[in-house]
Amino acid sequence: MPPSNNLISQMASDFGMMLEHLQSIIRTAPLRYKVFYIPKRSGGLREVAQPAREVKVIQRWLMARLELILPVHEAATAYRSGASIKRNALQHVDSDYLLKMDFKNFFPSILMADITRHIETHCGKHYDESEIKLISYVCTWAPNRQGPLRLCIGAPSSPLLSNSLMFDFDMRMSSAAAADGVTYTRYADDLVFSSHRSGVLSSYPKLVSEIVESLPYPRLELNDKKTVLASRAGRRVVTGVTLTADKQISIGRARKRQIRAMYHRMILGKLSPDERQELAGLIAFADDIEPGFAAWLSHSSDA
After folding, report:
1. pLDDT per residue over 86-121, tens digit each?
2. Geometric angle at alpha carbon 92, from 91 and 94, rounded to 5°
């Protein structure tokens, strides 16, 4: 694709790079990805495509500028400064009823054409047509070296772009929820609704589907198999954090058992370096959700 001279010249100057070299990288950017697979919590494997280092540098340079312009709704609780799964869960901890929904193949469903249209709408005063196409092109991936170009899990540009492209959905969803006294948050592809009133959430799967269908872009599909409606009487989990009956948050019994078992194996010298690193991450997560957990774990092992 022919790059914009203005944007690419500024980029080359900031990088201290020859213009021809940068143009070559940009032309082949959607092909410069390494694909690997990671296990899903629900089973199976998740495809992750990670751009080459030079493409990451370009994407980060672009996102540093776009984050000052692109809109992101306050209901979006992932990939933002100060955002966390803990803060997302805390917005629902006082509720009595909970509805969870999510999208199928969220990132790959967002195409280059969607990104171009969105940036034209919100950044048209800042970038011309060729610059917008360059941005959309260099931030998307060609799976199996074929089109259509799309977002992927693993690129530094995907979090901001996906959050912003969902602005219209988040705005409509938040407005409808507020009118019903419902709390709504979206953590990437995870939608969470909570309420104090019985029955109010039963109509929301249909409402969400109608709003999704009405969006001009992107074309998303709900994963109906993962729609869960729960009350305080049952088990309620929001982005991996358990909401307890006494209006607290917890990492849950299963994860506590996992951590205790791994900690015991570590004391016996039976953990590999990778497992020790995994355990350190689990303990840090647990201590963030339930402050004092790390001290309790250490004390209980000494008893």
Report:
1. 999 999 999 999 999 999 999 999 999 999 999 999
2. 105
What pLDDT shows up at residue 133?
Answer: 96
The pLDDT tens digits for 130-165 are: 999 999 999 999 999 998 999 999 999 999 999 999
Please calculate the CA angle 222-228-231 and round it to the nearest 5 degrees: 150
Cβ count near 153 (within 10 Å): 19
Q: What tokens appear for 294 in the block? A: 């790390």
**At 292, is the secondary structure helix, strand, or coil?**
coil
Measured distance CA(217)–CA(169) in Å, rounded: 9
| Contact between 255 and 286 (Cβ < 8 Å) | yes
Helix/strand/coil for 191: strand
DSSP per residue, 87-154: HHHHTTTT-SEEEEEEBSSTGGGSBHHHHHHHHHHHHTTTS-HHHHHHHHHHT-B-GGG-SS-B--TT
Cis bond before residue 205 (omega within 30° of 0): no
pTM of the model: 0.89
The answer to whether the beta carbons of residues 238 and 88 sit under 8 Å apart is: yes
User: What is residue 1's predicted lDDT score, i.e. its pLDDT?
Assistant: 47
78, two tokens = 């992932």
